[in-house]
């Protein structure tokens, strides 16, 4: 019977998955890293908070989401970083002069060659430019082409297409229950009642479950640089 594979700094892959739930970043310079998403690292790496002064030029060019500044750090140096998020699926994606919007809780890390901006859709961030980023999902990601309607809980993000519109089923809005919801905001929604509607060219990223990943509050988890 074969034993477990034991990695070290030399055997970890370079910018690739270790397994479906962990990703190894080959750091030689700088990456933006969401707090709580790094589980281990090799090498000489420093972690600087957003807005601490020394990295103002880098941050001014790549980070344009002040509402999320407290959730992120800059990893700087040389070594290997292992990224993971509560045993969710983790994958890397390459943007080539692209525009991709992703749920903020799913985004783990990205190269400074990409610019991060605040999306007009609450709870989402937009990456613009050319470079690599790492994101997690609750189950494998499925890539779909518009036009389509998407369960909000299943939506991971969308690339190179307009922001979605809200679509509500007619039965959801009518009757006594619909009236109560309209006036109080009470009552849960499901994909059968409320969807995001995408039109035009582009790609929509879906996770293969309706169970949305919960974002972790800043400071809830510990760990060096996280």
Automatic annotation (TrEMBL):
Pfam families: AIM24 (PF01987)
PANTHER family registered for this protein in UniProt: ALTERED INHERITANCE OF MITOCHONDRIA PROTEIN 24, MITOCHONDRIAL (PTHR38074:SF1)
Stated name of the protein: AIM24 family protein
Species of the source: Streptomyces coffeae
Lineage of origin: Bacteria, Bacillati, Actinomycetota, Actinomycetes, Kitasatosporales
